[in-house]
Amino acid sequence: MTEQRDKFRLANPYQVEGVPPGPDSPRAKLPVPHRQVWAALQDGLRNLSRVRETVLWCGEGWRWAWQYSYGDRQLAFLIPSDVGVSAVLVVDDDLLDPLMEHEGMTPSIRNLVECSEPKGSGRRCWTPVLDVDTARNFLYAARGLLEVIRSQ
Predict the structure, then answer these.
(1) pTM of the predicted model as reported, rounded to 2 decimal places
(2) Is the pLDDT of residue 94 over 70?
(3) Which H or E run contains 77?
(4) CA distance 50 to 35
């Protein structure tokens, strides 16, 4: 998984720290097969109630990324890549069990959360998204996480 993640990181089309991309730039800049996936993910996350989108520099590792947050909580990241779209679900440790029990969690997303890398008091659950079906599953998980956050 690390090798695949590195391949995605290196193919981010937005490499220069001082040159921020526009919020909709990947819809035009990504290779054609990945534009539809990006649009599905971005529209789905943008349409979540009270979720805010921010384009930010995430250092040399991920470079420019699109962060989605609810209040002061990070919910997800989208990172463009010429080889696909990277999607990251941000799950605090105290939300892990309720999220895994949520009815919208598909087996593939459960596996994603189980394979995530710990980061502070939470997890960064990375997955490559190469098709609309995977995008839909990721959005189910993001909606589920948002419901769990709101219920706390």
Answers:
(1) 0.91
(2) yes
(3) strand 73-81
(4) 25
